[in-house]
C-alpha cells in the first residue's frame, strides 16, 4: 500500500485545492517553479510507485508543453518580436507568458497526480458521509454510480458492435454518435433503475441511523500531508515575493 | 432473528397506468421457516408479489388492495432479504467485504456485529475470496452468491429470491442453489423462491405454490403438486421435470460457409484457442463451455465483428458472394445478407421505436423497395407471433418477445449464417419452444445457425457441439 493511501481522501482533496488556489491566484513563473520543485521534493515521501506516477506526470508535462507552445505563438505581443509568420508572433512578452503558463499548469496538476492517484471511491464516500455528514443516500448512490460507469464502457463497445451487425455501422464515427449515445442512455437508465431497486432491497433508506463499518478518521498521515501542503503553498508564494515577481491575480 | 410469517388476505396489486390487476384476491399463509417455491405462468404476478414482500413496490408505482403482512406488519425495505435475477445490477460496492456489509450498515447493526457477520455470510455461501477482492471481477454465479451473502448478513427472517439462477451457466446454477440451501438451513429463515426451473429447486423447498391471476391455483408438497398439476404447469410455461418441450431441428442440405484455420479469438489478447472449425448451411452448431471461456468472443469473431487474434476466418465463396477478405473487413451493410449476429441482450441492438420498423431496419439499409419490405416484415411478424404488437415499442415487450424480435430482425435480410448469443436465456418453456421452432425453420431454409449457449436442451438439439474451455477441442 502506498503511504498516501493512508491519508483521508478529504485531506488529500483539501490539500490539492489549497495549493491550486494559491497558484491560480498568482501569475508568475517563479511561484509556479517553486511549487513544482517543492512538490517534487515531497513526492517520494508519498511512496507512490514510479510505474503509476510516471505516465500521469508525463501526460501532464506534455499538456503543459503544448499549452506553452500555443501561448508562445499566439500570446499577447510585447517587447522585442523575434519571429513573425502571419498571425504567429514570438515576442519577449509571449515567451515569458508561455513559460509561466506552462509551469503553472504543471504546478496545478502535480499535487493532484501525487495525492489523488490512489483516491479510493469507497473511502471517499465513507469520509463524505461520516466527516462532512452529507446525506447517506446521496453519498451511497454516488458511490454505486461510479461502479456503473465501468459497466457503461463495456455497454458502449457492445452497442457499437451490435449496430455494425444491424447494417448501420458504415456511417462515419461522428454521424453514428447521436444514435449510439441515445442507445447507451436507454441502457444506462435501465441499469440505474435495477441498481436502485437492489440498493433499496438491501435496506438503503431504512429508518434509524446508519452504521458506517469503515470509520473515516484523520490521523498523523493527514497532519503530515497538510503540513507538506502548507509548506508547498507558503514556500511558493514566499519564493515569488522574494524574487519580486509575485503578481496577485485579483490586483491585475 | 426469528423466521418470518407471511400472510396475504385478499391482496391485489395493480401497476400504475394499467387496467388489469397483476395479482388479485390472493389468500396465502407461509409459516415461519417454510421454504416455498412459487410457480406460475408468465404474467401471473409472481415477481410482483416478491417485490411487494421485499418492500420495494412504492405507493407511487401502483395501487394495492387487501392486506399483505410480514409478522403482522406491512413490508418495508430491509425487513426481508431480496436477491434479483441480474447478477450485474446487484453488486453495489466495489469490494467483496464492503458489499456484504452494505445491508447491515443500512439497518444500523453495530460495527462489531457487522465485522462478525461479513465473514460468516461469505463462508455460508462458499465464497472463498479475500474481503478486499474486486466484486466486479467475480463470475455470474459468484456475484449471485455475493448478493446472497449480502442478504444473509442482514439476518432477515425472510429470504426472497426472484429467478436467482436464470442468467447463470449450469455450474453457477448449482453453486447458487446449494448456497441458498446452506444459508437458509443455517439461519432457519423463511424462504420464497420464484423460478421456472422446477428440477433445480424442488428438493431445496418443502412446499410449492402455483399462482394465477385470481390467486393460488395449487398448493402443497412439491411432488404432490407436480404430480397433480404437472401438464397444466408445463402448458403454462413452467419447466416441469420430465415434461420439457421437444422441438426437433432436422438438418437440411446447405453449402459450406466458413472454414476457419488455426483460429485464436480474443479482444486484443487471446482468450480461446479454437483451431480449425468449419460451419455449414442447414446445420445447427452449438458452442458450449463455462462462463468466461471465450464463447461470446468466438461468436463475435465468426460473425465478422471482431478480428481474430491469429489464424483466419475463411469465408467460402458461397458466403462471400463476391466479396474479398475476411468478414471482419466487410462493410456493415454487406454483412446483412451474409452473416447476422444476435446479441445476448436484445436491448443493446434495438434501433427504432416500433416492432415493425425494427424488423425493417436491415431491409431499409439494403434499399429494398417499400412494397417488398412491407411484405417481408408482415411475414416475419406472423412467424414471430408479434403481429398484434407491430406498433409497440421494442423496449416495452417482455423478455421472450424481445428475444424473438431481435432474432427476427436479424433474419429479415435472409443472411446465410446466423450467430446467436444465448438465444434461450431466461425463457420459460413455452417461449423456449417458440424460439427453437423459429431456429428450426431457419435451418430448414439451408441457413447455417451457430448458437453460443449454456442450455443443455438446445445443445442436445444441435447437429454439432463445439466445446470451448481450457482444453478446447473441436468435436465433429
From TrEMBL, chain A:
List where the protein spans the membrane: 12-45, 57-75, 95-116, 223-249
Record flagged with keyword Cell membrane: yes
Q: Does the keyword Cell membrane apply?
A: yes
Entry membrane topology:
Multi-pass membrane protein
List the InterPro entries.
ABC/ECF_trnsptr_transmembrane (IPR003339), ECF_transporter_component (IPR051611)
User: Which cellular compartments is it found in?
Assistant: Membrane
A GO cellular component annotation in the UniProt record: plasma membrane
Instruction: Write the record's keywords in alphabetical order, separated by commas.
Output: Cell membrane, Membrane, Transmembrane, Transmembrane helix
Domain of life of the organism in this record?
Bacteria
Descriptive protein name: Energy-coupling factor transporter transmembrane protein EcfT
State the organism named in the record.
Amnibacterium setariae
UniProtKB/TrEMBL annotation, chain B:
User: Which is one GO molecular function term here?
Assistant: ATP binding
Q: Which domain of life is it from?
A: Bacteria
Entries under CDD domains matching the protein? ABC_cobalt_CbiO_domain1 (cd03225)
InterPro entries, from UniProt?
A: AAA+_ATPase, ABC_transporter-like_ATP-bd, ABC_transporter-like_CS, ABC_transpr_CbiO/EcfA_su, ECF_ABC_transporter_ATP-bd, P-loop_NTPase
Q: Which Gene3D superfamilies match?
A: P-loop containing nucleotide triphosphate hydrolases
Q: Where is the ABC transporter domain?
A: 6-238, 252-476
Looking up PROSITE patterns in the UniProt record yields:
ABC_TRANSPORTER_1 (PS00211), ABC_TRANSPORTER_2 (PS50893)
Q: Name one GO cellular component term.
A: ATP-binding cassette (ABC) transporter complex
Q: Which Pfam families match?
A: ABC_tran
Protein family membership: Belongs to the ABC transporter superfamily.
Q: What is this protein called?
A: ATP-binding cassette domain-containing protein
Which species is listed as the source?
Amnibacterium setariae
